[in-house]
Amino acid sequence: MMIKKGKAAGLLLSMIAISSMVFGQQKDYPIQPVAFTSVHVNDKFWEPKMEVNANVTIPYVLAQCKKNGRMDNFLRAGKQLDGDKLSEFPFDDTDVYKAIEGASYAMQNKKNPKLDRYIDTLIGIIGAAQEPDGYLYTFRTVHAKKPHEWIGDKRWVNEEILSHELYDCGHLYEAAVAHYQATGKRTLLNIAIKNADLLVKTFGPGKIEEYPGHQIVEIGLSKMYRVTGNKQYLDLAKFFLDVRGPKGDVYNQANKKVVDQHEAEGHAVRAAYMYTGMADIAALTGDTKYLNAIDDIWSDVVNKKLYITGGIGATGAGEAFGDAYQLPNMSAYAETCAAIGNVYWNNRMFLLHGDSKYIDVLERTLYNGLLSGVSLSGDRFFYPNPLASMFQHQRSAWISCACCISNMTRFLPSLPGYVYAKNKNDLYVNLFMSNSSNIKLTSGNVNIVQQTDYPWKGLVDITVNPVKTTDFTLRIRIPGWAKQQPVPGNLYSFMDKTPLPVVIYVNGKATSFVTEKGYAVLKRNWKKGDKVSLALPLETEKVLANDKVKDDRGRFAFERGPIVYCLEGPDNRDSLVQNILVDKNAIAEANYKADLLNGVDVISIEGKSTKRQLNSDKLIETDQKVKAIPYYAWANRGPSEMTVWVPYEASAASPKPAPTIASTSTVTSSLKNVRMYGAIKDQYEPSSSGDTNYPYLHWWPAHNTNEFVQYNFNAAHTVSESKVYWYDDGPWGGCRIPVSYKILYLKDGQWVPVKNTSPYTVSKDNFNTVTFEPVNTTALKMEIQLPVDNSTGIHEWAVK
Ligand SMILES: [Zn+2]
Fold it and tell me: How far apart are the CA of 402 and the centre of ligand 1, in A?
């Protein structure tokens, strides 16, 4: 438990804090993180990113919260602003809380009096929006004439499904605790306590017995318990887990009691937050029933449901975990929030078990599928983080559901809290980044200085400065990737199975060491200035996926140390990468490019590009130099092609289209999003109408309208056949095959229907071909009648 004495300590709170210090230790994780307040990061890789977060992202997100009405929600709830206009979602309050949480960590990392004052003002506004009994949820308190349909006519009645009232509370508590720890001020904490006390009065056995619709309040209440010592908060957190299931939906993990869940299912962010909460409550109560469940779920994820980038939640349908080995690349959902949740969860699993394999997953997620969530500039964001693209993905300046944006904002400055952990006289070094830290062990205080060029170099220098010469054990994580085990389990493996030695020097001398649970154990009598150097064998590796992952068959991925690479258009010939083939045994070289993407290693390797030709199935192959950049840094140079998994078998490559009438035409359409236009003429045939692994064009959410696409030929052509493959993502998605369509051609400036010689058919999962009397024209147009209740899309449209 961490207690930092506040400057304006309320009497009651001081008494609670003091009482728990006097009357004994709370039960908690056997291993304790070294708090972010004790770790000063001055790292070449991470410090600039944290500065961009502090100088760009946090002010940007606060400004966006203001611009998009989130601050006004609080002002209106507090009667400081007239009217009943609200922003879009009842969980919008959380973006403000998460921004405050991020700002708190950032102010701890670097003082910022102006931000501090702004946050104080904001907390005043939040306090005014709180109802007298502690209820805080602007969407109800504003009493809009037309209330949001998610909120229910009374407090909590829609909680299990849509209202997100407890979700808002959870983020409030996390922000309040962070703000208190970083600044010592109790202003937001007092608001949170008043709110948590209301929950204690409202929920529990014999009171309202409902589970949170979107988990996170469990984590928040555990934090509140640690800071205040009020055990009712912990009991309530446990209640919220135990009351869950078995009569709810798998969507939010309410179809089974939590202790009966053994596989990762449903909405990935809710799941990751719940598993994190289960770990917290297991640690705080000593209840081992939760552990059996989350140990099994963890194993399910790392063996069957984890992207090589550390992303989780494969499918956009329900923002959910897919089936085992269902890991599509272009349509990968891998939400940024889920990556952050995966870091939270794996950190807790480590604190419970003391095994480095959890930090291996954490590190993989951190450097890849989490970091990809924000642009290098700090003001563009990914919600899904795909592993392949054909121009259709790009980071957004803002997303009306801003969860991922505010989550990035709060996560990055909290990073110093993940570097070290301790257990009495065991000091764990988990992450490698330059920093200086003051850590309190049972045997005394130790200053630790880490210096490294990680992740580009494998050398880490650790200087140990105990205040007085003392015995303790340094446990240094030997990353899985340095032992040719990229991920615990058998989902991914390196092609090269021979590990290179990991060497540890103590005061310049190579030292033998034993490893326990993945940590090199260095036990000695440490004196000031003792220097440990860790030399990790950082090589370019080719990663293979388990053959059961069909989307990665015939492909490998590049990895160097913790960094996963991708091929991106701007670094490769014709700005194309989907058509690239690289021999499995080709030798890669890596070079650091200081002026590219803020400084990255670039991998170069000999490969080929492939191209289709007319009237032959044989591909045209051309030798070319292939380049790969770190995955996290892609999509910083405009829309492009990208792939993490590089084909080594021709069958896995997607050749450049042959020069057909369609591929040489320009597209116009009733659809405004021009980025989708290329999809219909890319010559990739989907495996079914619902295949989301190739680009497609769609009109969603339009329905019951008449739409068109049109090919403007590069010259007059005579055509007599049209082949169209419809996109249909039923039953869950919003697109279905159309009601009807027809083909028209341009004749003397007028659109004239073709005279079809075969019937127009509209069917799923195949090409719909129509032949017509030949016409010589410069443009062909397809008019499409959308279904009454659904939209429509097109995978491919070929003309002959
Ligand atoms: Zn999100």
Answer: 7
Angle between helices 217-228 and 165-183 (to 10 degrees): 40
pLDDT of residue 730: 85
Ligand 1 centre distance from Cα of residue 338 (Å): 7
CA of 63 to the centre of ligand 1 (A): 19
CA 136 / ligand 1 centre spacing (Å): 22
Same structural domain, 601 and 706: no
Residue 481 CA: distances (Å) to CA of 359, 366, 579, 671: 12, 14, 29, 46
Contacts of 585 (CB under 8 A, 6+ apart): none
**Distance, CA 323 to ligand 1 centroid (Å)?**
21
Tell me the CA–centroid distance for residue 341 and ligand 1, in Å.
Answer: 10
| Distance (Å) from CA 542 to ligand 1 centroid | 30
Question: Are residues 699 and 768 located together in one domain of the fold?
Answer: yes
H or E element: which one contains 674? none
CB-facing half-sphere around the CA of 444: CA atoms within 13 A:
15
Q: Which domain, by its residues, includes 548?
A: 543-651
Which residues of the chain fall short of a pLDDT of 50?
A: 1-24
Cα(616) to ligand 1 centroid in Å equals: 46
Q: What percent of the chain has pLDDT over 90?
A: 88
φ and ψ at residue 627, rounded to 5 degrees: -120, 145
- Residues 223, 93 share a domain: yes
Q: What are 101-147's pLDDT values in tens digits?
A: 999 999 998 999 999 999 999 999 999 999 999 999 999 999 999 99
pLDDT, position 731? 81
Res 653: pLDDT: 86
Say how many Å lie between the CA of residue 92 and the centre of ligand 1: 12
**Which of these, 157, 257, 168, lies nearest to 210 by C-alpha position?**
157
**C-alpha 340 – ligand 1 centre gap (Å):** 9
**Cα(715)–Cα(413) distance, rounded to whole angstroms?**
57
CA of 282 from ligand 1 middle (Å) equals 26
> What per-residue confidence (pLDDT) applies to 671?
94
Distance CA(778)–CA(310), nearest Å, equals 49
490: in domain: no
Q: How far is the CA of 416 from the centre of ligand 1 (A)?
A: 22
Residue 651's pLDDT is 84
- Taking the centre of ligand 1 as the mean of its atom positions, its distance from the CA of residue 408, in whole angstroms, is 9
Q: Within 10 A of 247 (CB to CB), how many other CB atoms are there? A: 8
Residue 704 shares a structural domain with residue 774: yes
Given a contact cutoff of 8 angstroms between Cβ atoms, the answer to whether 166 and 172 are in contact is: no
Query: Measured in angstroms, how far is the CA atom of residue 508 from the centroid of ligand 1?
Result: 46
Give the tokens for residue 261: 């869940």
Q: Tokens at residue 509, please?
A: 């001398």
> What's the gap in Å between 214 CA and the centre of ligand 1?
12
Would residue 487 count as lying in a domain? no
In a 13 Å sphere around the CA of 401, the CA atoms on its Cβ side amount to 6
The DSSP 8-state label assigned to residue 650 in this structure reads: G
66's tokens: 């203001």
Query: Is 393 among the domain residues?
Result: no
Q: Domain ends where: 594, 627, 651? A: 651
Give CA–CA dist 319/341, Å, rounded.
Answer: 14
Distance, CA 269 to ligand 1 centroid (Å)?
A: 7
Q: Both 317 and 359 in a single domain?
A: yes
Question: What is the whole-number distance in angstroms between the Cα of residue 329 and the centre of ligand 1?
Answer: 19
Assigned domain for 266 exists: yes
111: helix, coil or strand?
Answer: coil
Q: How far is the CA of 504 from the centre of ligand 1 (A)?
A: 40
Judgement on whether residues 234 and 301 belong to the same structural domain of the protein: no
The C-alpha atoms of residue 33 and residue 419 are separated, in whole angstroms, by 8
What is the pTM assigned to this prediction? 0.91
Co-location of 68 and 214 in the same domain: yes
CA–centroid distance, 273 to ligand 1, in Å, is: 12
